[in-house]
# Entry
Amino acid sequence: MSNNVKLTTEKKSPLDFLKHIFRRRASLDARKARAGYVFVLPFLLGIVLIYLPILIDSLWFSFSQISATSDGTGRLNIVSVGFENYVKPFNTPGFTEALLAGLQQLLFEVPAIIVFSLFIAVVLNQKMLGRAMFRAIFFVPVIISTGIMMDFSAGGQNDMSGAVGGETNSGTGEGGASEIISVLDVQQLFASMKIGGELVTYVVGIVNNVYNIINYSGVQMLIFLAGLQSISPSIYEACRIDGATGWETFWKITFPMISPMILVNAVYTVIDSFTRTNNPAMRFIQNAFALQPEMSTAMYWMYFLIIALIIVVVAGIASSFVFYQRKD
# Structure
């Protein structure tokens, strides 16, 4: 009986209580981690069993010369040629120009898409009538631009451009009758503002390329919307009580809180811009694959390394102003 009394009246120290809480949290985190691995397991298996062998073979072929054997068995004769396939593209007419055109398209589209999608997300995050309908309207181009719908849409757009007398040259503002504005119009508008010609050309290119910018901003807009809706309304209420203006609230609260989404969207937009079918470099490499598969494979690997390097640079620049909110 006395032993039972001792057991019921025994007190735990604060250290034992903290250990118990930490053990429960650790076990909960471990269960969440295991559940996360279960969800990503099919993707990991696909990477290891399907894509990784293909990547290894592709890297091997980029250093080789492939030819069919003459015995009629259909086997391939693979001979190592070192870095010869990596040197040939730079001696091929049009490859360097296609890479530079792809980089120019990247520098032109990425800032415009990020700014536009952020602006639309802020507008659609406001309480207004028909907000869900407007969100669906801005996301419709993402669905239309997939697969066969993209080919049909591009064909219809080209037919319309030819019908009105010419096509717009994206990024340069030069084109036929399909242009919305011209460089001369913007120069006359900004004549008294002492704005450089490069900025005028950039603005003209954005306006004339507004269809593609809207078309490629749907996913980024949804990511920004998710980030905006994760901000606690009490923060904005405290700002209003302190007398902060909408401009101050955006730059002091909204922009820092969604800066991680800016980083995500910047990386996503860079990858999407480089892997798009209308990218000049992608078109050039795909056309070269039918003629020289080995050299084209080396082009793909060089293209991949360029993309990876640009992503590292963009992520490094964007991460310098990213703000992560602490949950504790």
Q: What stands out?
A: The chain has one domain: 86-319. The first helix runs from residue 2 to 9. The mean pLDDT is 74.
